[in-house]
Design a protein that fits this description.
The protein is α/β, with parallel strands linked by helices and 164 residues long. Helices cover 37% and strands 14% of the residues.
Length: 164
């Protein structure tokens, strides 16, 4: 899968459990408690989806979601709330879920909002572009020993928790 999910929520047992569930499902989780730090991370990182925890105040969560939409409107956002019903104005987030419910609902919501083909925006052209002999892609030379990519793959499921 390889999707990177930014989880914005105060660090709590529920947050840690949610992160573990996402990681076991194959997502890379970047967990940040501070909304200002979350905005900086969102602007500087390749984030595929955002999950707002219910511990962030509603007005702060709404403003942060608006900021994220201005920075990159293509990134889907899911807001968790302590009660059922809409907590964030319509059109700002893609999904709203009751956080006290089944964790499977969050996984299903992520599947709904992320591309089903597993290809991030802009990657499709890279994967389908034919190799040209002039760019060296048709060389018979070995591509390498694979150690660099194995090291990258091994580190993809680590949480980056920040309790600022």
């Amino acid at each position: 899968m390889g999707w990177t999910v930014l989880c914005v929520s105060k660090i709590s047992p529920a947050q840690v459990t949610r992160n573990m569930i996402l990681e076991r499902a194959g997502y890379e989780v970047i967990a940040i408690a501070n909304p200002d730090e979350a905005a900086r991370t969102f602007a500087a990182s390749a984030i595929d989806a955002v999950v707002f925890g219910d511990s962030i105040q509603a007005d702060q969560r709404t403003e942060l979601a608006r900021t994220f939409k201005r920075l990159n409107p293509a990134v889907p956002m899911i807001a968790l709330s302590k009660s059922s019903g809409s907590q964030v104005p319509a059109g700002i987030v893609d999904e709203q879920l009751e956080s006290l419910g089944d964790p499977q609902l969050l996984l299903e919501a992520l599947k709904r909002v992320l591309p089903q083909d597993g290809v991030r925006d802009g990657e499709a052209s890279l994967q389908t572009a034919p190799a040209r002999a002039s760019d060296g892609a048709a060389s018979n030379a070995p591509a390498g020993d694979g150690k660099a990519t194995a090291g990258l793959a091994a580190g993809t499921n680590r949480s980056k928790n920040s309790a600022v």
